[in-house]
Predict the structure.
Amino acid sequence: MAVTVKLGLRSVEPSLPRELFALPNGLTGLGPFEVAADGQRFLVQVTTDKIEPLIAIVNWPALLKKGGAAAQ
């Protein structure tokens, strides 16, 4: 949640809270997210049933010198 704050000479007036982002359902534990050291990003723990393959391209600088991707 977040609020904007309006500062007066002798007052502080917060806005109504608003949701920054929705957290996925089913998160467990006390801290399902962490704030980055710079305060600009969040790391959120999620689970998924969909598993994507990991593709690693080795020697990619050589592919750049050849002018394109190698045949797969």
